[in-house]
Amino acid sequence: MSKDDTGYEPVFDALMAEVMAGAPRFGHREHVHLTWLAVRRCGVPEAVRLVSDGIKRTARYAGAPQKYHATISRAWVELVGYHAAESGESYFPAFADHHSALLDKRLLTRFYRPATLASPRARTGWVEPDRAPFPWQDQSRHDSGRK
After folding, report:
1. Non-local CB neighbours of 127 within 8 Å, separated by 6+ positions
2. What average pLDDT does the chain have?
3. Which of 3, 14, 37, 73 is most exposed by smallest CB count within 10 Å?
4. H/E segment holding residue 128
5. By CB neighbour count within 10 A (0-12 exposed, 13-18 middle, 19+ buried), where does 95 fall?
6. Within 10 Å of residue 52's Cβ, how many Cβ atoms?
């Protein structure tokens, strides 16, 4: 194991294999499926680390480490986690049908301005939404952070 290995590699690889067993390619739907599996198996905080580390590793392996985006990765895990907890669906196709907005890869633009997501700070660390709060966030907390 390399010194930066977090131990999530085998779990991420197993989830990826499960998702790819029925998919011709790894597109946005598969990414949401992988995230849903991670959230259901590990909970949101661990899924953030698991998915983020797996994406970072995959991007490095592909020779494109710049493709990893910390805020986008965490935001998707938190959104999927929120809706997974809300619905309790145990079958991904039903979850995806019930939460079809998650299949729109532009969904984050409801919560973030494009310039915010394009910023180096958002690429390398967590940035709170600046357009609208996530569904679980308190509106007053969001507003107070913008003053």
Report:
1. 71, 112, 116, 117, 119, 121
2. 90
3. 3
4. none
5. buried
6. 21
